[in-house]
Design a protein that fits this description.
The complex is a heterodimer of chains A (300) and B (809). In chain A, 40% of the residues lie in helices and 20% in strands. The longest helix of chain A has 26 residues. Chain B has 809 residues and is α/β, with parallel strands linked by helices. Among the domains of chain B are: 111 residues, Helicase, Ruva Protein, domain 3 (Orthogonal Bundle), CATH 1.10.8.60; 191 residues, no CATH class; 229 residues, 2-Layer Sandwich (Ribosomal Protein S5, domain 2), CATH 3.30.230. In chain B, the strands form ten sheets. In chain B, strands 23-24-22-21-26-29-30 form a seven-stranded mixed sheet, with helices on both faces. The chains are: A alpha/beta (300), B alpha/beta (809). Strand 3 of chain A pairs antiparallel with strand 5 of chain B, so a sheet runs across the interface.
Amino acid sequence: MLTGRTAMRESPPIGFRRIVVALDGSGHSEAALEAAARLASVFDAELAGVYVEDATALRAAEFEFAYEASRYRSVLTEMSAGSMRTQFRVQEQRARRAFEWAARQHRVRSRFDVVRGQVADELVKASDEADLITVGQSGSLSSSRHKIGTTARMVVARASGPVLVLRRGLRFDLPVVVLYDYDAVDSDAALDIGRALSRQDRLSPLVVLVEAPSPAEWPAYERKVLERVGPEANRVETEPVRMDHTADVVSRAHRRRAGVLIVPAGSRGVQAERLSGLVSAADMPVMLVRGPSQRVSQNP
Amino acid sequence: MTQRTPSVHPLSADQLYHACRAEDFPFASTAELPPGPEVIGQERAEDAIRFGIGMRRKGYNLYVVGAAGMGRRALVHRYLEEAASRRPVPPDWCYVNCFDDETAPRALRLPAGRGVELRDGMERMMDDLGTALHAAFESEEYQQRKQVVQEQAREREETALQELQERARKESIAVMRTPTGFAFAPLKDGEVLSPKDFHAIPEAEQQHMQASVQQFQEELQRILRQLPKRMRELREELRKLNREVAEYAMNDVVGQLTERFHDVPDVVEWIETARDDLTTQIESAFLDTGEGGDGQPPVKLSDLLDDRRYGVNVLVDHAGATGAPIVYEDNPHYQGLVGEVEQIAQMGTLVTDFNLIKSGALHRANGGFLVVEARKLLLQSFAWEGLKRAMSAGEIRIESAGKALGLMSTVSLEPQAIPLDVKVILVGEPELYYLLQAYDPDFAELFKVTADFDDRVVRNADNSLRFAALLAALARREDTLPLDAASVCRIIEHSARLAGDAERLSTHLQPITDLLREADYFAREAESDLIRAPHVQRAIDAWTRRSDRLKERIHEEILRGTIRVETDGEAVGQINGLAVLQVGAYAFGKPSRITARVRIGKGDVIDIEREVALGGPLHSKGMLILSGYLGARYAVEQPLSLSASIVFEQSYGGVDGDSASSTELYALLSAIAGVPIRQRYAVTGSVDQHGRVQPIGGVNEKIEGFFDICSARGLTGEQGVLIPEANVKHLMLRPDVVDAVRNGRFRVFAVDHVDRGIEILTGMTAGEAEDDGTFPEGSFNRLVTDRLARFTERRRAFLRHADGEDRHA
């Protein structure tokens, strides 16, 4: 369990100072909000909620022939710019209420911004000014629970910093499972974030999935990871994994009952086209780590 | 006036006490005796009990009538044990969940001892199912099959949507989310056109785009409309998958249990119902369609394997029993008899389920015997009605008293009724029996057999020996020292005294048991190895001493002269009567002075007690009888021209009973005849209209009461008591009284007619009537008739005179 401020004060000055969460009032975004607020509390970061009014939809509503198709209505509904704005306002108010409640609940500094524009663009823009962005994974046309949505996919693809993706019903928690790929530049940053997170509970192990080219080389690879971790090596549990095999990664993380899976961008396991597959299959919060290493302190 | 010795002789000392002779007993100590039954002389009751227990038909329940402490329970128990051991052990009963209607738990009947086996088996089965189901539902195979199902469904849906999306893009139409759905808009260079830009493009193109948008909108709506149906199909498929997996995982485990109970079809059937219920629960629980929007928290398998839901509440467990149960319910309240459904508070509300059903005495006694004390039963609200309802209906239906009476109808459980086959034995006092017979029409229907305990038995050699055996049994049960033959004799004599009859023994065991324990105390104090007669006597004396404070106070006041009772000299119209006072279990005699005064009148005998409503009806009756005797004996041919008043002097409470009617008659006759009565006598006995003296109760106490006063003042040898002849057989007097009589210092006379009494009391001949109705000159009765004749004469003269005066006036 992440335990909040007390634990935070004991933790080294690593981590996130500003966490952005994308809000649209849906269940998925509430899961993202809860995770973001918990992280903000742990790292004493500012929680920044962003609600984007979709300019495209607004524009579409201006056509006199525009109608809306809905899963919950059997007939098409007429659209207008006015009705669309009302819809956005209602959605924004819902999102704001949830946001304020979460911020109060976790006692974190917070701000809530409403912007208008292309949703993915605005979120990527917001993530540039933050250390972490959390998004709900929905948004696909079919609204499938497992499949990552268009918006989330675009944020994952384009954000410059770490992205945490969750869906409704998932809870961001310990233990942390980190995928460590020697070929990926962001592996060390991913490991550092994993260390910082798992430090919240001394009993919780930090699981590191590592791929060695052959069984004979495994001890050497494992040792490198432990050296990298340093004094906390005794809490680390390593496990070999087949990096390019999404199912293997996911099933090992599942077996460890991972509360979050941290993967470095650029790893073979999470190349853009397979990323959505990983997130869909993982069925657990997934944090993609990427970006300048100064975002995360290297020396805990 | 001739004086002569009375024609009646005093009773001999032997007539005053029917002693029991130790040498008649063939034992020296009760330790030599085999313990006998703890009851004697109850053949009638025993026959009834045997019949009642043996008769196995509806309504043949038993009411054992008798006062407390008569060994009713012990006797009933003896017969019950015998009968119960011959009967088969009844089945176990369990309550289990009825999955179709959880408010009506189901009753399961199992062979004795197998209820617990079922409960444990179910517990074990649920454990095993937990393991098996977890393994099955967490297996890769299940997850994969589930994903395949989900994927297939999703693919069908997605293909349609993607295809639509694709076609839209080709026609430069964008699809986008809105907060409540989806919308289409014209696209150009990857950007949604603004209306302004749209209007800038050629008209034909505009129209084409508009038509496309409309077409796509409708198509999408059509696809979306299919979603609920597809979702339903998906859920159905998942349900099927879950059922298959669950059934496969459970079959073996459930099969093991059903195999164990193959001989109890009901149980097998229920286990299968439970399995089906669990399957249904599981198949609906894991309907994770892979879609957002069901909004339900995921169900945990461990929540479904609910011990309470699939538990077994063993209501009656006869494991290890031999024979039919005998249940003594000492606290027969309503729920204690028919059972109850308990409730537990959960988050401020009361909840319940079949696990909280508690058995009642009827459940435990089902198939056997239930023994209840009638008084306790009737003291408990609704308990009697509840018991009767169960007995009449032949089944035990657990419902709250409030509900049974129609007072409340809160939603609670209505457990399936359990068939009842029980023999109920009510043990109670005769008063209750007669009340129930009189006022409860169901009673005679339900309790057809009455075992009536006698409170006394004939005192003969056989019964005395049985009594000794009974004492041996009591001594063993109470763990007292054994008794020697003399102490047994003393207790038998005491028992006769308790019965108030030298020829009977009391069957009340309670005072006998108490006496035994107390005698044991004194025997041990004296370091004796046997209870001996003096110990028994000491216990009796100690008990008397503890109880006789009031007697002592009254006797003290008599001796001090506050209450006036004369024990020597003579007086006209005054006599010593004898009353009995009862304080708790202790009764004692109190001498009372009765006086009578006469004057000319019109034939009234005034009972002062009655005039002031201090006399009871029996007393009044006695007075009227003696008036009748007076008139018929002494004034047949002339009007009874006297007015008399009779009173119990210094009596401030009520007086009832007719045991003083002869005494009152003596006082009255003495007053009429003007002949003094010897105050050294006290008299008891009722009288009939012919002057015959009839027996009364408490004769021993009465004699002793007068003896105590005389003894305190000094026995002269002349003092004594007149008792009815019919009471001689009741005499069991205290040893000191018997001794005084033996030594000629006190006397007891038995009289059968007032004439005999008159002779003793006055020393005169009573006198028999001649043929002409006159009594011999010099006899007492002659004095009475003469005086009455004078009264009549004077009254007549007086009336004449008064009449003349009236005429003059």
